[in-house]
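QA checklist item 7 of 12: single-chain prediction sanity check.
[x] sequence parsed
[x] length recorded as 217
[x] structure emitted
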Amino acid sequence: MMNDPTPATGIAFLHGGSHAQLATLADPALAPYRIRPVHVRTGALDELTEAAVIVVSDRLRPDLLRRWTGTVLAGLERGATVLVCGENDSGQWLPGVREQVRPTVFWWWRTGEDHRLRKLALDHPAWEFFSDRSVIWHYHGVLEPPAGAVSLVDLHTEAGTRDGSILYLDETSTAGKLLVTTMDPVYHHGSGFMPGATQLLYSALHWATRNREKKTC
């Protein structure tokens, strides 16, 4: 049974107040996680300083996100688990990460196109939490993770060569755990379309809180 986290040490959800972010926060299915919303404009930095899990919601304004990045990185150094969603200029503030823009293939399952996404590290424990549908829908760019990180999903070119990661896990660079993606699950879940995005959001939160789930009430 999942331990009931206190407000100080539970899940801090950094958001910008968009319709999709607010709809996600209001999702009854997420209520058991006791998620604590932190607004990127009006929140205080110390609202993240003791959080066990920090979620950086997708599509935050870069100028507003900038003042939070040092606190998010400090959370990793003290051992927090951090989820960074897409379209947040990850290559500008996550150490050792390079990011490049790529065209998004939105409706490959309707057009018959190859999505060119390939799962990797299939024996990694993280795959106990993520289904194919949760990680293969679309993406916004590719990442080159730092040394020691594990890419879980790569994008390939039309010629079949590796183009970069769209989902990686770094458990070696800091005392914490960092899951980074170029997908935007909060936007699509809160907007009510793209079922794979909902699966990714739910699965990522389940993965992030698994250590607390070992405790019983």
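[x] summary fact logged: The first strand starts at residue 11 and ends at 15.
[ ] second reviewer sign-off
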